[in-house]
Backbone:
């Protein structure tokens, strides 16, 4: 399958921009860090010559970006059951269970969603890269809910662009510690890696990418609040960090949370064994048909049991 190329001419008002910043503003289906890696790999040329990320551009410069063709995936298909919500020739939508890692990484070489998808979709290999074939977005291992996976390169690029433009509809259900003030709200912050704990993220940065979460209270429970969170941006761990840094970590969150002051909430968190977060809704425009599609899944049994347990205590 041919690889799509991107070509741009630097306008007068764009003169002086760094090459990586210039491309990051061109609505490409890649993050700025991915673009920098592509530039470092020599895949981006300015006036026909490979350039560095910090190259300052001049008006009239011709910038060409040609990603390499998809690489064959050296992963082993595994017969892992999947709950499929929709499947066609272009994409597959699944309800990911909590505990399932999305793609191979350190400590998770097998048993991932990618291994399961390679077993189900024989022609998925190489779409988008070696270790993440077809993966448009991901959910944390212990977050359940709706995910979409592309079956070909054009579908992958289109869906990635929709994510980057923030035109998708995404709604999550979360159980957070304590009583959240107000009926609804909006977290709009800068977002970046934690300066000391590099595997974590934080809003307490002076420079970073914007992160926006809209939320509303669904139900007030004993020692906790059930909320719906709708994302305008999709930063890693965004909902978990936003609620944690506004004083209400997700129940059961072992990375960003802390033991609740409420004994009943602590007991619920211990029984749940994961962060109380479920991706309830995902809506997008189908890249091939143009149809607007929405997929919704109910809260899984383990999270529902946690909610019901606190609900029973609330009614006492």
Residues:
């Amino acid at each position: 399958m041919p690889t799509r190329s991107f070509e741009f001419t630097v306008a007068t008002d764009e003169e002086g921009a760094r090459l990586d910043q210039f491309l990051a503003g061109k609505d490409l289906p890649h993050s700025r860090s991915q673009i920098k890696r592509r530039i470092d790999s020599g895949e981006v040329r300015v006036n026909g010559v490979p350039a560095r990320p910090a190259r300052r551009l001049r008006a009239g410069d011709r910038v060409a970006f040609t990603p390499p063709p998809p690489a064959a995936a050296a992963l082993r298909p595994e017969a892992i059951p999947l709950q499929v919500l929709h499947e066609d020739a272009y994409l597959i939508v699944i309800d990911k269970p909590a505990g399932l890692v999305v793609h191979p990484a350190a400590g998770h070489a097998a048993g991932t969603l990618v291994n399961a998808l390679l077993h189900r979709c024989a022609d998925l290999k190489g779409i988008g890269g070696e270790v993440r074939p077809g993966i448009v977005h991901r959910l944390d291992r212990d977050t359940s809910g709706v995910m979409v996976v592309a079956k070909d390169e054009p579908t992958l690029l289109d869906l990635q662009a929709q994510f980057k433009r923030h035109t998708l509809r995404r709604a999550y259900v979360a159980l957070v510690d304590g009583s959240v003030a107000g009926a609804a709200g909006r977290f709009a912050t800068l977002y970046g890696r934690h300066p000391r704990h590099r595997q974590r993220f934080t809003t307490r940065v002076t420079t970073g990418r914007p992160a926006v979460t809209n939320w509303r209270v669904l139900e007030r429970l004993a020692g906790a609040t059930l909320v719906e969170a709708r994302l305008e941006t999709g930063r890693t761990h965004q909902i978990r960090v936003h609620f944690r840094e506004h004083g209400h970590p997700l129940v059961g969150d072992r990375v960003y949370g802390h033991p609740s002051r409420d004994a009943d909430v602590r007991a619920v968190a211990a029984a749940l064994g994961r962060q109380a977060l479920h991706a309830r809704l995902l809506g997008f425009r189908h890249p091939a048909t143009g149809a607007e599609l929405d997929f919704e899944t109910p809260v899984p049994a383990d999270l529902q049991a946690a909610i019901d347990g606190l609900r029973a205590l609330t009614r006492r």
About this structure: The chain is about 20% helix and 25% strand. The mean pLDDT is 89.
